[in-house]
Amino acid sequence: MGAVRNLGILAHVDAGKTTVIERVLYLTGAVHKRGEVHDGTTVTDFDAQERDRGITIFAAAVSCVWNGHRINLIDTPGHVDFSDEVTRSLRVLDGAVAVFDAVAGVEPQSEAVWREADRHGVPRIAFVNKMDRAGADLDAAAVSIRERLAVVPLVAQLPVGREDGFTGVVNLVRMRALLWSDGRDGYEEVPVPEGLRDEAARRRALLEEAVAELHPAALEEFCSTSALSDGTLAAALRDLTREGAGVVVLCGAAYRNRGIEPLLDAVVAYLPSPVDVPPVRGTLGEAVEERAADPAAPFAALAFKVQATATGRLTFLRVYSGTLDKGDAVLDTGAGRAERVGRILRVQADRHAEAERAVAGDIVAVVGLKAARAGTTLCAPGAPLVLEPPDAAEPVVSVAVEARRSLDTERLAAALARLVEEDPSLVVRSDPETGQTVLSGMGELHLEVAVEKVRRGHGLEVAVGRPRVAYRETVVRGVSGLVYRHVKQDGGAGQFAHVVLDVEPLEVAPGTGGAFEFRSAVTGGRVPQEFVRAVEAGCRDALAEGPLGGHPVTGLRVTLTDGAAHSKDSSELAFRAAGRFGLREALRSAGSALLEPVAEVTVTVPDDALGGVLGDLAARRGRVGGSTARAGTTAVSAVVPMAELFGYATRLRGRTKGRGTFTARPAGYALVPEGVADRLAGAR
C-alpha cells in the first residue's frame, strides 16, 4: 500500500489535464499510442459527448505503474457545471495534481476545485502546463497561485527556454537539467547549462529560504549552514505538501511530451500513499470508529460513482480497510441489506480487467450490487460502519422534459431514474400543479448533456422546455353579502340551496402564500350543520381555479352568514354546488391579485463584480436583504421571484468570470407587481 498513489487531476476547463493524463499513460506503458483531445482519441474522454464537445464531462478512473508504484488516477471535469463530479472524486482521493495554464494562471474553476480540495484536506502539487505557448510565464503563474489560492508556491523547477523554445527544466532540488527533443520519447539528464547556472543558484536559494520559513527541521539546518542539503530539501517538500503548508510547483508542456516524467517522480516523492493519510473515521450509532488502511482489518469501502454500461451496472469503490474477494457478501449500511459482489474490475476508463481481490487503498469497480448509490458505505456484515458520504450539491437550474410521443412516457421515466442514479446532482420531480416533469441540475450545460444522454442512450425523442411557474391567486379586496341560490328542477326530486357569503383577505405570515379559512355565522338552524360542511367542501372546490388565470386561489376567509334550505329538495350535493358556484361569483366580484413563488437567494461574488451582480438582481425584481463580506468576496442575500431565476446561473458566471456562485431555496409566495401581472396576463 505504501507503493500506491490515489490522485485526481484538477483544473479549469482547457488547461490541458486530459492531455497530461494521456502522456502519463503513454510514458508508463499503460497505452501504446498517444491520444489527442482534438482528435477524440483520448482514453479518459471516451464518452461520445466528451469527444464531440472536446471537454471532460464524467470523472474517469485509470491506473498505471511508475518506478514500482501503482498510480490510480481520476480525470475530473473542468467545467463548473460538473463540479459535483469533482467533489465526489475528491472525497476518495489521497492527493491531487492541479494543472494550470502557463498563460492564464489560476482560472475560476481552478480556484473553485482548489477550495474544494482544501475542504477535504487533499494534499496537492501544481503543474503549470503549456509552457510552450506565447506569453507563458512560470513566475506569473506562481504569483497567481499565491494571490488567488492563498498558499505558498514552492517553485522546484526553472524552465529551459521560453515559449516555443521551451525545451526542458532545471530540477532545483537535484540541480540537474532535463532536456527533451521533438520526435523522441524520454529526456536527457545533463548538468545545468552554463547560461542558467547563476539563475538556477538564485532560484535554489529562494526555494531553500521559503522552505526554511515553513519547516522547523529545515530551518534548523538553514540557520547553521545557510543552505539545505538535497535530502533535507526533498524531505521538507514532502512534509509541507502533505501538511498543506505549501505547494510544490512544476512546469511542462504536456502536448509536446515535456515535463511529465518529473511530474510522476514528484507524485511518488511528495504525495501520500494510503498508509500515510489518517485512518478513515466512521460512525456506528453514536460511537465513532477509526479504520486504518490495513488489509487485515474489517472491510470498509465507500461507493463514489455508479455507471450503467452495456454489460451491467458498475459501482466504483474506494477501499479504506480490509480485503474484498470476488463473491464476498457485503453490507450496505444505508439500506441495511447484504449484497454479493459478482466481479471485481480494475478500471482503465471504458476498459476493464478482472481482479480476484481488492485491498485497502485500492480504487476498483464491482459488478453485482443492485442498490448501492454514490455515498453508500459497504462493509463486512460482522463489522458495520457508516462512512461520511460526499456532500450532495443543490441543483440551481431546471428544465421541463417530456417524451414527444405519449407511448414513450414510461420509457422516459425509467431513463431519467437511471440518470439520477448515476449522477446524484441531478434531481427529477413531477410538479403536481403544472403536470410537468422537471429535471434540475448544476447548470445549463449539465442539463443539456443529461438530456442528450437520454436521447442517445435510450433512443428517445425528448422535448425540452422552460418550466412553468406555479402561480397563485389571492383576494386583496373582499365582498360582503353575496347571495347565491342554487335551484334545479328537472323531474323528480329537485335541488335547492340558498347561501349568503362574505369573502375577505386572510392575514398570513409574509412569504407563506396564505391559506384558506371557512367559518359559519348562521343562526337559528337556517342551514343545517351537515349542509354547512357541504358548503365548505364546495368552496374548497372553487379554490382550484381563480378568475385571473385559472390558478389556485389562497389567502382568503369565507364566512357563511345566512342561507335557507328546503325540507324536500335540499341536499349535501345541492349545498356543495351552491358553495362552489357562489364562491366563484364572489371571487369575480372581489379584488384579486396574482401571487408568484419566490426564493431566498444567497449570491457569493468577488468584490470587483459586486456592483454588476446587484444591478442584475434589481433587474430581476430581487429585494436585497443584506450582505456579508468574506475575504475578497461578498455574500448577498435577496428574495427573487422564481420566474426570474431561469438562466441566472449562466448570467452570474458570465458577470463574474465563473467565480460567482449562488444557492436558492423556496420561500413561499409574494404579490406580483401590477405592471408585471398585466404582462403575464397578456402572455397568457
UniProtKB/TrEMBL annotation:
Subcellular location: Cytoplasm
One GO cellular component term: cytoplasm
Keyword Nucleotide-binding annotated: yes
PROSITE patterns noted in UniProt: G_TR_1, G_TR_2
Domain Tr-type G: 2-275
Annotated positions binding GTP: 11-18, 75-79, 129-132
Matching Pfam families: EF-G_D2 (PF22042), EFG_C (PF00679), EFG_III (PF14492), EFG_IV (PF03764), GTP_EFTU (PF00009)
Keywords attached to this entry: Cytoplasm, Elongation factor, GTP-binding, Nucleotide-binding, Protein biosynthesis
GO molecular function annotations of the record: GTP binding; GTPase activity; translation elongation factor activity
UniProt-recorded name of the protein: Elongation factor G
Organism: Streptomyces thermolilacinus SPC6
Organism taxonomic ancestry: Bacteria, Bacillati, Actinomycetota, Actinomycetes, Kitasatosporales
